[in-house]
Specification:
With 325 residues, the protein is mainly α. 72% of the residues lie in helices and 0% in strands. The model has no long low-confidence stretch (mean pLDDT 85).
Length: 325
């Protein structure tokens, strides 16, 4: 197991290097530091002196890859590529174009993101699997039929509808919880109830229908018929056999999502005014803060690779037929 994890980590290095090089190319070759300065300062009436000052203040005045004016290691290290890209591998995100410490912002903003994403993930997983098992238990009946109709209808509705409708109905019309905002400690609960509830409801359609398909595929297999022939009840067959053997496709979608919970939800945090990583990314894009965007792209790549590794490891825990060779 340890050798497998180490091997997968080594496989991840070329992927991260590729993502890093591609991001660097997009930000500094296709879009040069001079272009960044013009976008930040304003295209009209910007002087070369102002552009140069902006580049010096943010470390964009150095050569891209090779610094011929330096000697020794400085030829490579005293460059934009080393400062803005290579240091990301040590999780040294540097400072934003606004002068803030990106690492500090990420550490402080990840907790509001987790406060929303983690309950949505846990409560949603229980709700989706329970609803899917209910439709599978009453398969080919009116419960199954109308359950599928409800799932398709909910899938067809935009997520923005749930957010705006929930804010109007629960927050404004019934005045049960605040529409937006955030607080620390136990006071944050009243701000999190509505986003969590909307997040769970918005995912019912797609997730429950997908889990139902997985369960129905397992129900038609030979081991299920054997279990029924031995006299096991339908509920025991569903929860003891079908659910257990359906864990691999479920884990494929579930475990990959876990690391991405740290990244937050762009739309939810923006609409509810939650100071998480999702709104942090949106604010960086709106303010043309290229350093923050680069850091978030790299962090997202790292978390996604971790999710893939966790997925492969979890396969061996739920299915002994899967071996790590």
């Amino acid at each position: 197991m340890l050798a497998y994890i180490i091997r997968r980590l080594f496989y991840a290095i070329p992927i991260l290097i590729g993502v890093n090089v591609l991001t660097f190319t997009l930000f500094f070759v296709v879009n040069s530091p001079d272009d960044m300065a013009r976008v930040h300062l304003g295209v009209k009436r910007v002087t070369p002196a102002a552009i140069e000052k902006w580049k010096v203040e943010r470390g964009y005045d150095k050569p891209l890859l090779i610094n011929d004016n330096s000697s020794g290691r400085g030829v490579v290290t005293d460059t934009i590529f080393f400062d803005k890209s290579v240091k990301l591998f040590a999780f040294d995100f540097g400072r934003s174009d606004q002068g803030r410490d990106i690492g500090y912002d990420i550490r402080s903003r990840m907790w509001p993101s987790l406060a929303i994403a983690l309950p949505v993930f846990l409560f949603g997983l229980v709700a989706y699997i329970t609803f899917a098992l209910l439709m599978a238990f009453f398969r080919a009946t009116y419960v199954d039929f109308w359950g599928v109709v409800l799932c398709v209808a909910m899938m067809s509705i935009s997520g923005l509808f749930y957010i705006i409708g929930g804010q109007y109905l629960v927050g404004k019309l019934w005045n049960l919880v605040p529409i937006s905002g955030y607080d620390t400690g136990y006071d944050a609960i009243k701000f999190l109830v509505l986003p969590v509830l909307i997040g769970v409801i918005a995912g019912v359609g797609a997730n429950a229908r997908w889990y139902r398909t997985i369960f129905l595929e397992e129900i038609n297999k030979d081991y299920v018929r054997t279990a029924r022939a031995k006299g096991l009840s339908e509920l025991r067959v569903l929860f003891r056999h079908v659910l257990h053997n359906a864990m691999i496709p479920i884990l494929t979608g579930v475990v990959v999502v876990i690391p991405l919970l740290f990244m937050g939800s762009l739309i939810t945090e923006a609409f509810f005014g939650i100071p998480g990583l999702g709104s942090y990314t949106i604010d960086a894009i709106n303010s043309q803060d290229f350093a923050v965007v680069r850091a978030m792209v790299f962090l997202g790549s790292v978390l996604y690779i971790i999710g893939l590794i966790l997925t492969d490891i979890s396969y061996t825990l739920v299915d002994p037929r899967v071996r790590l060779e």
